[in-house]
Amino acid sequence: MAGRSTRVRLVLSVAAALVIVVPLAWLWQASLVGKSYSVTDMGYLDYGGGPAGSHDHGPQGRSVSDIVVSDARKADVRVDLVAAQQNLNIGGRSVPGYTLNGTSPGPTITAHGGQLVEVHLRNASVTAGIALHWHGVDVPAAMDGVAGVTQDEVPIGGEFTYRFVANQIGTYWYHSHQVSNEQVIGGLFGTLVVLPKSAGRDSVDVVAAAHSYTGMKTINGVAGDLKVPAKRGDQVRVRVINTDNGPIESWADTPFKVLAIDGYAVNGPTEVTDRSVTITAGGRADLGVTMPSDGRAVRVQVSKGTAVILGAGDPASPPQPATALDLLSYGNPTALPFDPAQANRRFDYSIGRRPGFVRGIPGLWWSINGHLYPDVPMYVVREGDIVIMHIDNHSGQLHPMHLHGHHAVVLARNGIAATGSPWWIDSLNVLEGETYDIAFVASNPGIWLDHCHHLGHAAQGMVAHLMYEGVTTPYRVGGTAGNRPE
Amino acid sequence: MRTAYRVLAFAIAALVAVQAAAIGYAVFAQLSWIENGGTIDKASIESAPGTSAYIFHALDGGVVLLLALALLVISFFAKIPQGVRWAVIVLVCTIVQIALGTLSHMLSAIGAVHGAVALVLFGVAVMAAMRARKPAPVAEEPVTADVA
Fold first, then answer.
1. Touching check for A15 and chain B: CB below 8 Å?
2. Rounded to a whole number, what is the distance in Å from the CA of B125 to chain A's nearest CA?
3. What is the pLDDT of residues A76-117, one digit of tens each?
4. A323: Cβ–Cβ under 8 A, 6 or more apart, which residues?
């Protein structure tokens, strides 16, 4: 009897232990991604109700590396960039970081609409390698600068040439998309301004890239306020670029207009007085100020703690407005270049958070449509499709969602339709509990990241992709090239 | 098995202490940053001093959960009087603690409960470890009793 009860007890113990261990072990092994993998093999295909077609990896498939601007066309703007890993001097402190041509941020690249920009990148000393992504510019797929998806990382001594036509007028930036979380925080980025071909120029044009280096807030890499000469009556455009991982609020002590969001002009902007403008991580806002006729200086607060001072003087910090400008109803509506009602693909991008394993590591992870990385949706489209994406966030935190290679227009937030100027975005601030409906035309074949631009969240697996039918990639994440896009 | 149970239970208690230490460090690192003129907002918090300790705290919480699960598995074989019961108490406490920590982002007051429950978790982990120290009483050995 005794032997039997001991045996029963042992069997029960083993069974109970297996009930705990087996599901955990299964979940753990399912989360492993292998030493190297193609993003096109990740997760599951989501056709958004459109035709499944032939997802062709065969000889008819087009490689992402072939989608380029013709070599025959000569460059109008040529820039050489040399990347290095070195200490930076920020506000009198030496902090580890990265530079482009010896500075962080790197140089501002200026082009005029329609010009071909050619950037020759060389890696002098960045150990982990680099790749440059043109944030907000709908470049040809091979030029998107994502290591392991559109190119291999550029190792020390390596080179890569980016070529794209700057068709979109506006404010953009470029940053590393190799180990991006670490490298962008460390300063591996720069700004890109595309001016109109002619006329319409502002009398004063200011680039203000906001970045925090080891917690120190800066504008264009310098701690403290940025002073810019301006005289009465000047039309000033302040291009605020948020290169951090979280949103900033910008406001001014003088009425201002929001001239553009994410590079795209606002139609019929009106004067803003008691509101701040939320600029999400990776996003940009062009703020327009007319210098007062009494000649006083104007303070444009770029975020808490940093400001652009226009004119002579040192005006006091204006209190932060209690509410942010609602871009859903700002400006005047105008016709869209496509009809969202004709959408033939509808995708869900539902952001949650749940316990589980990612790359074998247990934790509370971000989920996309209930799935954890790498088992996330691969959104499949065909060139010419009209796509609606429904984003909802029930993850407990805000997420700056960034779609590569495309600009989308906001149709509705929390089910309430947009009534203002068409609100074009490449980076969208999605708060906890919010839903957004955005629409875009699939007009730029390639394989594009659709991810959270809190780059720490991206490194934790908040990355999905938009793939055009028939487009393949020869590049792999991991492997001998050491591609680590996030 | 008995030793493994004891080591795991003490390890859980030790990691709970490390959790408290991480938060203590993070709070004062950020307070002193602000007192010395620094600014912290959503945009700059990622690279601000002390934030790495918060990130560590979140990861370490996951490790405690794994150890608590391991403690329960081991308890089935360790033949410690009420060992399974105490392992379950430790596990439930850990799950409650993680849930409270997660919910604190929505309601700060829950954060206060999260801080207090840490002491409870520390206590039950030590209690579990103590149980494994004593040799099993004779009454727990039915084999001996049956033979007699």
1. no
2. 20
3. 999 999 999 999 999 899 999 999 999 999 999 999 999 999
4. A274, A275, A276
